[in-house]
Structure formats: structure tokens, C-alpha cells
Amino acid sequence: MQWILIFIFSACIFLALSTTWLRKSRKYESVNSVASSYDSWTNDRLLEKLWGEHIHLGFYEKTRLKKDFRKAKIDFVHQLVRWSGLNELPKGSRILDVGCGIGGSARILSNDYGFDVIGISISQEQIKRANELTINNDLCRFEVMNALDLKFPKGSFDGVWSVEAGPHISDKQKFADEMLRVLRPGGFLAIADWNQRDSKKNPLNFFEKLIMNQLLVQWTHPEFSSIEGFKNNLLNSPYCGCSVETSNWTKYTIQSWNESIYEGFRRPLAVLKLGLRSFLKGLREIPTILLMKWSFSSGLMEFGVFKSRG
User: Fold this and answer.
1) In sequence order, which residues have a C-beta less than 8 Å from that of residue 101 and are 6 or more positions away?
2) Which pLDDT belongs to residue 10?
3) Is 3 exposed, middle or buried (0-12, 13-18, 19+ CB in 10 A)?
4) Which of 92, 111, 282, 304 has the most CB atoms within 10 Å of its CB?
């Protein structure tokens, strides 16, 4: 226990000093701060060079399974498609990808399943890069849009997809309402997110609160939902058509945190070619990644998946 406390204290000090040195806070302030953070992460190409087209976690059927990190991310998309039932939709079905990043999942949904996909992000630079990476595909396009104000009529989509976008959104109920509003009756909802342990049932202690604060301020998160909490957001929505199912995929995704660091050692030139500042920014992420790994390992955080029918 003592080494954990020392690590937590050291990591928090390092993160505070690195934020001051780089002169850029990543604390959540508004949707604009989220957009600014992702504009920066997209423009410096660090995440793309290290992790490829997918910023989300990968899927590992067994712990310590040796699998290429980028392949694990692709496998995650297919696993969520099958688990949610999205694969039951016919080709040509309209899918909305909420928080699409640079379009990795959207391109798989379009190319592999034949869906007509629209991806949205609050980040202009993400949408620009997503369009650059999507070549000769009329069934996959991207728009800048706020997830809390979707510019689509009610029931516009056969499926709604969102992976690791929820932690950046302050109003979880509105987030749930908007996704369900644009989902047609009988359509498929597929969501995957980082979730905090239910603090109402099991309150956080002092050190867990310290860790949680770093996880929020370092990656522009206003707050995390619990799995049960966001399930209730979906169930309480006036647009919810039926039941909501959830599952905890922590054991299938937790290996991703170590792999995300190992990629820097596997592809050192990819980072070094971006310059000294990008290299230092990459080093800055390691303590937060390690805190994430510990949080998921200890049960402070959980990787929740959600599915429902419109």
C-alpha cells in the first residue's frame, strides 16, 4: 500500500508541474475546452502516430493476450457491434457516431458492414482529419456538432454509436436524451464509456478523490458517470423505448493501458520525428495512463457498455 501512495503523490506532483511548464491547462471549463484539447491532440499527430486511427481502448479476449494494439482496437469495434446487435441491421442503414474522433470506428461501420455513417465531433480539427483519412467513401462523412444539440430530426437513425465520449460531456441526461431522440423506434443503441465506481453505494476515500481529480483535470473531463447512473439516464429519457442492458468490460480492455505506453517504445521514431515538444507531451501522459490503469484494476473505474432498442 505504501508504494501506491508514494506513486500517487509523485504522479500528482509531476502532473501539476508539467501542466505549469507546458502552460496549458486541460481542466474542463466548457465544450470549448474539450474542442481545444482535441484540436491540439489532433494537430500534433501524437496519438495518431502511436495508436493509429482509433483513440479508444482495445479488446483482449484473455488477459495478457499478445495482440497488436491497433488490431485490438479494431476487434473492439466488431465486439461492440455484435454485442449491441448492430450487426442485425441491413446494409444501407443510417448510423450516427457520436464523438467520432478521427473516424476510425465510422470507417469500419461503413466499410465492413455497409452502413451509411455520419460521424460528429465538437473538434473541428478531428473532423478535418477524419475527412482527410476517408477516401472515396460516399457512405461515411463527418460534421462538427455538439452531442448535446444534435441537428437531426427525431428518429433519423437506425443505429446510434458512441465510444468513450461521455466523460467529456457535462450533462449526462441531455446526452442520453439526444442520442435516443434521434434513434428510430426499433433502432439499436451502442455505447461504451469509462465509468466511475458508484460512489453512492461505495463512497470514495481521500486518495481515491485525489486520483479522480487528476483523471478529470488532465484529460478535460467534467465528471464520470457510474454504469448504473448512466443506465438510469437512458431509462429516464422520454425517448427510451424499452429496457437497457449493461455489461462491465474492464477485464477485456484493461490491458490497453499498458499497451498504450508500450507503443511509444515500439514506435520511438514516430514520436521523435514529431519533435521535442511532442516527445515531452507524450511523457506527460504516462502518469495519467498509469493512474487510469490502477483505477480500473482497483475497481475505482469500470469500463461500461450499454445497449438498448429505440
Assistant:
1) 54, 55, 56, 121, 126, 130
2) 55
3) exposed
4) 304
CB atoms within 10 A of CB 217: 17
Total domains present in the chain: 1
d(CA 289, CA 91): 38
Place of cell 465510422: 106
Q: What is the pLDDT of residue 24?
A: 58
Residue 25 CB neighbours (<10 A): 14
Q: C-alpha cell of 13? A: 506532483
CA 142 from centroid of its chain's CA atoms: 17
208 is in which domain, residue-wise? Answer: 2-309
H runs (alpha helix) in 155-203: 172-181
**β-strand pairing of 301-309 with 244-248:** antiparallel
- What are the φ/ψ torsions at residue 9 (nearest 5 degrees)? -60, -45
Q: 278-281 long-range contacts, Cβ below 8 Å, gap at least 24? A: 278/44, 278/45, 278/46, 280/22, 281/22, 281/44, 281/46
pLDDT along the chain (310 residues), means of 10: 50 49 70 93 90 95 88 98 98 98 97 97 98 91 98 98 98 98 97 97 94 93 98 96 94 96 87 80 88 97 95
The single residue listed with the C-alpha cell 434513434 is 183
Q: DSSP H helical segments within the chain, as ranges?
A: 2-22, 31-43, 46-51, 69-84, 104-113, 124-133, 172-181, 206-218, 227-235, 250-253, 255-266, 268-272, 276-298
* CATH at residue 261: 3.40.50.150
C-alpha grid cell, residue 235: 431509462
pTM for this predicted structure = 0.92
In angstroms, the Cα distances linking 299 to 7, 194, 199, 202, 296 are 18, 12, 11, 11, 5
Q: Distances in Å between the alpha carbon of 44 and those of 70, 138, 256, 275? A: 19, 28, 22, 10
Pull the grid cell for residue 189. 443503441
- How does pLDDT run across 179-204, given as a tens digit for each residue? 999 999 999 999 999 999 999 999 99
